[in-house]
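Hello,

Our lab assistant flagged a job as stuck in the queue for most of the afternoon. It eventually completed. Since we weren't sure the result was trustworthy after the delay, we are filing this so someone can double-check. Below is the sequence as submitted and the structure that was eventually returned. Let us know if re-running is recommended.
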Amino acid sequence: MRARDRLIGLILLVLAVSVASGCVTDREFRTPTPVVKKAADPVTTADGLRQWWVPDASGVMFVRPPRLQAERYRAYLLEPPLLHFRQLSAKPSRGEAIRLSRNLADVIRRRIEASFGWTEATEPGPEVVRIRVQASNIDFASPDSSSHSRTTALVSAGGLVYFMFEMQDSETRNPLLRFGVRRRLPGGTFNGPSWHELDRARQVFRAFGFDIGPNLESVAQN
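-- returned structure --
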């Protein structure tokens, strides 16, 4: 029961941060809160996805029961990943933010194509999966934010990045799979959105790719 409580706590935290964080783009999507129907049931989301266990894999994943049915699809449509920054975070320039989003998109493309063998589509279709990704709680230290309270905030929460990955049927928009995981930014704190900070973000994006890989391969093979 403690394992389940920790699991529910993780996914609730991911979803809460996704809604509460500031965003560098106009777009945003909201994910239904997971609920437990009764103690004997597996964890199920409000929109009908059921928890999918992958031994020794990171993160929490929910899949449309009884399984994904990946063979029904031939291509994927990847929306530009969203990057959400903490309120006190220094913000990268628009160009830097776009490059970071594209870097995360490249990580996702490699994982999708390796796991499912799908090609990338440019528009929705009957055999196309829509993929949406966001990274929340990203925190770049500002040069003028070296106060004790700011340092405490960085140590307690600022170093964690929350990732949410979702697959939908591109025509019906019905959810097929949802995955959430949290990752810590490597390398301590730096000042400003310098190349050090941008490289840390790229590193944590690559780590997310390693996290999601075994999960996608599990549903692709079943």
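-- support follow-up --
The delay was a queue issue, not a problem with the job. The result is valid. The first helix runs from residue 2 to 20. Residues 104 and 205 are 6 Å apart (CA to CA).
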